[in-house]
Amino acid sequence: MQFDFVAKELTIKLVYYGPALSGKTTNLQSLHLLVDSTSRGRLMTLETRDDRTLFFDMLPLTFRSDKDLSLRIKLFTVPGQVIHGSTRRLVLQGADGIVFVADSQLAETANNAAAFLDLTENLKANGIKMSEMPLVIQFNKRDLPDVRTDAELIALARRGKEPVFPAIAATGKGVVETFMGILHLSYSTLDAQHKLKDKLGLGASALVADVAGKLGSKVTAEQLLGARLGGPEILRPDPGSAP
Ligand SMILES: Nc1nc2c(ncn2[C@@H]2O[C@H](COP(=O)(O)OP(=O)(O)OP(=O)(O)O)[C@@H](O)[C@H]2O)c(=O)[nH]1
Ligand SMILES: [Mg+2]
Q1: Quick one: pLDDT at residue 126?
Q2: CATH of residue 12
Q3: Which atom of ligand 1 is nearest to the CA of 171?
């Protein structure tokens, strides 16, 4: 997090992490299409010829709240391919929250688990405990055959404390819900550490309602956050529920 007192500008960094081809870049592309041009910056991508992320993608979003506060959200993706481990560690630095994009296909279960372990290790290498990092899990590619069942995902969501969101990033389904989930959790965590509500006059729920409105969402912030599987409330994450 960075806060510029003169400009009243708060910058939050959120990172989309997960195995290769799970749909991290697609999440950012879908958000880029949804956000109107006054709030979004250029989506920067650096890919190989076959569309694999080489370094990272970055999408900057800017929202001005009615409290005259400017909120900049920088969304990053990491490259999922196993060989890019050190790049993932670099991109993770300074993250205020993480979306773990898991691939729902049964055949990808082991790759999800390996990427989750890789995330834990990279956070540790950066001196951060998994339990201290706001984290939401997205199960993407719900449209494909041979995927983990809804019941299985609900059971997994109930076992862990991380909010779990289903998605079809390719059509945009669940993308805003996931984004709101991590924004709410990250801002709540920053608020608890830095008393942002007292200092800036803006709490997590008001922030999410504001951003949802500016995203042109037809449903309320509560409905977006309520799209998580298996639980009514967003809680602080605990470690130990690898997807
Ligand atoms: N069927 C289906 N395909 C999807 C979905 N989301 C993404 N894809 C496809 O999956 C492929 C990989 O998506 P990317 O977004 O490039 O994956 P990535 O996680 O950024 O991959 P790396 O950059 O290699 O880590 C692309 O062909 C996408 O179109 C989805 O919800 N359903
Ligand atoms: Mg990518």
Answers
A1: 96
A2: 3.40.50.300
A3: 31
- Residue 31 domain-assigned (yes or no): yes
State the SS3 of the chain: CEEECCCCEEEEEEEEECCCCCCHHHHHHHHHHHCCCCCECCCECCECCCCCECCCEEEEEEEECCCCCEEEEEEEECCCCHHHHHHHHHHHCCCCEEEEEEECEHHHHHHHHHHHHHHHHHHHHCCCCHHHCCEEEEEECCCCCCECCHHHHHHHHHHCCCCEEECECCCCECHHHHHHHHHHHHHHHHHHHHCHHHHHCCCHHHHHHHHHHHCCCCCCHHHHHCCCCCCCCCCCCCCCCCC
| Any atom of ligand 1 within 6 Å of the Cβ of 104 | no
Give the distance (Å) from ligand 1 centre to CA of residue 152.
22
**Number of domains composing the chain:** 1
Structural domain of 73: 2-225
Tens of pLDDT, residues 169-202? 999 999 999 999 999 999 999 999 999 888 888 8
Residue closest via CA to ligand 1's atom 29 equals: 170
Q: Out of 32-41, 68-77, 137-146, which region has the weakest mean confidence (pLDDT)? A: 32-41
